[in-house]
């Protein structure tokens, strides 16, 4: 869970919507589509065998509704399936052919679409990542030296980042376009003046970018990969993180430091899987540092949605959060961003308490600190 947007509303203001990772499926695919898909990727040396299997499949399909020929069907299955394994079709192709031969009823399985979590790019940053809630150890003060390269050159030029964010060139192109668009948006203009540089503006915009991948997959997004490595507490991991992400973090923190502070109460919801660890580890008066960019919301109802049934809500007394919604790809309200340098103290009793709506809750108070130390 990390910074970008909350809400059920629309996308970014104006244009500048990130590229979609995948196209929509055809609504009326021909019945031969499974056969065509099955052949795709077959090695050239066994193409003839593949077409033989396809022909046999067509014959089988024409026979399977004739009760008197069930015996023939059984023989076809017993002969064709071993051949299928022998020619080593790609896994997905093999699955398609076997499904066509055997059918859902033969295997006792009925295909159903897997439910999605309902998370959209506008809300993905507010969904807690696995293990995030227990990455709480206080870190040594980290200095983020000024890089010699621009933000986008830092992003595209580092091989480690390119390995993590495979579509980094697309992301950079989106960010450049969105940053230029925002210069003509009235609501963004005062914040852009505060930031005072293209590097800073692009750094914040890049953090809000989302690839909009299938099944709400976060891997490959800048915000996700950067935050995952920022949470690493090992000496080796932090050295690698600084070498890869140090320039990007510097540009981001420098820009955020220039924005107006938000002071007030924010919330972050964690799912039921994190509840036992939070209630045990977030002991009264314990210092807490998440060590990564963290998105919170001023709307407790939104935090409850992200926590889900049996989850836990952390209530935070914030002194210097940042509202970056006017600069986001997904323009929404009520999200406040915290920095990797933010430190907190647990002010509620160990084990938390039951708040409104029956949710377990833990209270934190922000300690004084600086956004950027360089």
Short synopsis of the structure:
The chain is built from 13 helices and eight strands. It is an alpha+beta fold and 374 residues long. The strands form two sheets. Strands 1, 2, 4, 6, 7 and 8 form a six-stranded mixed sheet that branches. A two-stranded antiparallel sheet has the order 3-5.
Structure write-up:
With 374 residues, this protein is α+β, with helices and mostly antiparallel strands. It has two domains: 33-107, no CATH class; 124-366, Toxin ADP-ribosyltransferase, Chain A, domain 1 (Alpha-Beta Complex). The protein contains 13 helices and eight strands. Strands 1, 2, 4, 6, 7 and 8 form a six-stranded mixed β-sheet that branches. A two-stranded antiparallel sheet has the order 3-5. A hairpin with a 5-residue loop joins strand 7 (353-354) and strand 8.
Low-confidence stretches: 1-15, 22-45, 85-92, 97-118
Number of helices: 13
CA(first)-CA(last) distance: 26 Å
Spell out the CATH superfamily of the largest domain.
Toxin ADP-ribosyltransferase, Chain A, domain 1
User: Roughly what is the average pLDDT, rounded to an integer?
Assistant: 78
Measured as a percent range, the helix fraction is 40-55%
Q: What is the architecture of the largest domain at the second tier of CATH?
A: Alpha-Beta Complex
Broad structural category = alpha+beta
Q: Would you give the CATH topology of the largest domain?
A: Toxin ADP-ribosyltransferase, Chain A, domain 1
- The number of strands is 8
Give the overall shape.
Answer: globular
CATH level-1 class of the largest domain: Alpha Beta
Order of helices and strands: HHHHHHHHHHHEHEEHEEEEE
Q: How much of the residues is beta strand, in percent?
A: 5-15%
Number of domains: 2
Q: Describe the largest sheet.
A: 6 strands, mixed
